[in-house]
Amino acid sequence: MIEGKVRSVSADKPGEGIVRIAEELGADLIVMGSRGEGAVRRTITGSVSDNVLHHSTVTIQVLICLPKHRPK
């Protein structure tokens, strides 16, 4: 059985806020969406999902769900 909690947090950088709350809750999994932007645009504008993926602790798994139709 999968159990979950939904939390709202205010942070200067959303990715850091998500990782912080996940660590506080002792989360095993973070599930989040992505807009499916290309690599160049993501590099310029930044990506919350990339930030969470690269800064979450080793014990937390991150599942990123891509959109059905990616923007061109």
TrEMBL record:
Top-level lineage group: Eukaryota
Species of the source: Magallana gigas
Pfam families reported in the protein's UniProt record: Usp (PF00582)
Every UspA domain range: 10-59
InterPro entries according to UniProt: Rossmann-like_a/b/a_fold (IPR014729), Universal_stress_UspA (IPR006015), USP_A (IPR051688), UspA (IPR006016)
Name of the protein described by the UniProt record: UspA domain-containing protein
